[in-house]
Design goal:
The protein is globular, with a radius of gyration of 18 Å. The longest helix has about 35 residues, at about 15-45. The strands form two sheets. The protein has a two-stranded antiparallel ribbon with strand order 1-2. The chain has helices at about 15-45, 90-95, 95-105, 110-115, 165-175, 180-195; strands spanning about 55-60, 70-75, 120-125, 150. It has one domain. It has six helices and four strands.
Length: about 220
């Protein structure tokens, strides 16, 4: 899929060029090793769920400069379908165990492997669906000037409980201000948000509402 990018808005600092990747690897590797027992236990519980097909969710997502990679998560939804073979709504496929895994953000742990592979950073704009790429405005497309992250500035400022426009504003702010100190702050805030299980879903949705594109700006009266 072709996707036009505007000139990079990311800061050309030493941290952005080299330090951020080193920080990701040095932190993600021990975290993944520590998480392995938790992942094994969660996978065993998921395998016992009725209607569960597999324990690992894989989906193409756009990364740095829009390059598509395969994102890994724990499978928190069943493959239940209606009489026409269409997947049921998220709230009908999300299991009780899946809700708990999402609330604790344990379903995100396999993404530490994506960090080690270089697909993700620990901190950055969340990788969204490939189908959203042509819907972005030129400004919104700048969220791909940096690697996407497991957590980000939008996630600690509302996560799925805020509007798409607000998410993109937070993402673009992060792209312009990314730094080691900011990443440490976001990671600390993420830990607090996870413990509080806040912003897991959008109002009226089991997960979040699909992005349909931002409305065009209205012209001001003369």
């Amino acid at each position: 899929m072709s996707f036009a990018f505007v000139p990079s808005a990311a800061p050309a600092s030493w941290y952005h060029r080299w330090g951020k990747r080193a920080f990701d690897v040095l932190l993600a590797l021990p975290l993944l090793l520590l998480a392995l027992p938790v992942l094994a236990g969660a996978a065993a519980l998921l395998a016992l769920q009725p209607g569960q097909r597999g324990v690992l969710f894989r989906q193409p997502r756009p990364g740095l400069h829009g390059r598509v990679f395969l994102l890994y998560k724990l499978q928190t939804m069943t493959e239940a379908r209606d009489a026409r073979g269409q997947l049921l709504p998220d709230d009908q496929r999300l299991t009780r165990l899946g809700r708990w895994l999402r609330a604790a953000s344990l379903d995100e742990l396999p993404q530490l492997w994506n960090v080690l592979r270089g697909d993700l950073s620990l901190v950055g704009p969340r990788p969204l669906l490939v189908e959203y790429l042509p819907l972005y405005s030129p400004a919104q497309a700048r969220r791909h000037d940096v690697r996407p992250g497991i957590t980000g500035w939008a996630q600690v400022n509302g996560r799925n409980a805020i509007s798409w426009e607000q998410k993109f504003e937070y993402d673009l702010w992060y792209v312009r201000h990314a730094s080691f100190r900011l990443d440490l702050r976001i990671l600390a805030l993420t830990a607090a948000r996870v413990l509080g299980a806040r912003g897991i879903s959008a109002p009226g949705h089991a997960t979040t509402e699909a992005f349909r594109g931002s409305p065009p700006p209205t012209s001001s009266p003369e």
